[in-house]
Amino acid sequence: MNKLTKAGIAGFLFALTATIAGCGSSSSTSDTTIAAEVSGTSQTYPVTVGDVTLNAQPMRIISLSPTSTEMLYAIGAGAQVVAVDEYSNYPAEAVALGTTLSGFEPNIEAISGFTPDLVIASYDPGSLAQQLGALGIPLFIANAPTNLDSVYEQIQQLGMLSGHVTEADQLAASMQTGIDEAVSAVVAPATPLSYYYELDNTYYSVTSNSFIGQLFNLFGLRNIADNAEAGNDYPQLSAEAIVSSNPDIIFLADTKCCAQTAETVAARDGWGGLAAVVAGNIAVLDDDVASRWGPRIVELVAAIGEAITKASAK
User: Fold this and answer.
1) Higher pLDDT, 258 or 6
2) Which residues form the Fe/B12 periplasmic-binding domain (predicted)?
């Protein structure tokens, strides 16, 4: 499995690691400039969220999580972000920062070089909290969610920490509405459609118990990976098992990392006769959107709905 594939899956597993060491440089953005760009705060300080207490609104935030980066910009805290990790490629403003820190193998010197007043990560790969704590830098761990409610809660937590409570509440409400509308727009067939969700081209998938799988559950789909491996919500399937299951829809979440397309799937040995291939029901997803639990979840749910509608019409 290549490094980019690992980065996507690790957003939910946190057991995989990348091999690129983090690097960075001191930012030229002054606190005065940042403060001028922040229009105001809907949060009073001090504020405590989990184990983190902030005495003032943070003006030099570092995000080591692509999902957290998207959330911060979506709630209006982008002007406070001074550095992001190497996989934070959305929105464009985050890319424009030109920073390539590592969230998998954090470099404490590179991080501290930006003089942050808050660091956000999706997990602690080792002693990050201890090292940052020794420097007086607070670390907030934005864990992978177990369900949609925990996604909305995390957005609200980042809103409290960054001083954008109102915007965070509005974003969470907007996402809920968008997801509800996407689901209600789909007329589910009498017999549930089966699907195969591909994380990479070595056939790693997800079960209905995973966070991603729960999004598919909203539509009543049947997951062919559910009985693949007891206790593992991210099993590796065999090609034979997939062919034998003959899914109605195939969802590809490995189009960027592994260059998979409807054509490459159809060309696989024994796959040409699958129901999904014959009917053209191969949904090509954006790896980044599919592997993060940020604001663009609405896009993922909508894409699932569109694929179901297409498959149901045939």
Assistant:
1) 258
2) 60-312
Which tens digit of pLDDT belongs to each residue from 160-189? Answer: 999 999 999 999 999 999 999 999 999 989
Whether pLDDT at 23 is above 70: no
| Of the residues 175, 197, 218, the one at which a domain ends | 175
Q: Please report, for residues 182, 251, 284, 300, the alpha-carbon distance to residue 303 in angstroms, rounded to integers and kept in the order given.
A: 9, 10, 9, 5
275 & 248 share domain: yes
Instruction: Name residues whose C-beta falls within 8 Å of residue 236's C-beta, 6 or more positions apart in sequence.
Output: 202, 203, 204, 205, 229
**Residue 235: inside a domain, yes or no?**
yes
CA 6 centroid distance within chain: 13
Alpha carbon of 105 to those of 12, 18, 61: distances in Å? 17, 7, 18
Q: What domain count does the chain have?
A: 2
The two beta strands, 118-121 and 139-141, are parallel
pLDDT confidence band for 155 (50 / 70 / 90) = very high
One domain, residues 137 and 248: no
Do 194 and 168 lie in one domain? The reply is: no
Mean pLDDT of the chain: 90
Name the nearest CA neighbour of 164 among 63, 257, 45.
Answer: 45
Q: In the chain, pLDDT over 70 holds for what percent of residues?
A: 86
| Residue 281 lies inside a defined structural domain of this protein | yes
3-state class of 217 per DSSP? helix
CB neighbour list of residue 247: distance below 8 Å, 6 or more residues apart = 194, 195, 196, 224, 274, 275, 276
Domain range for residue 90?
Answer: 47-175
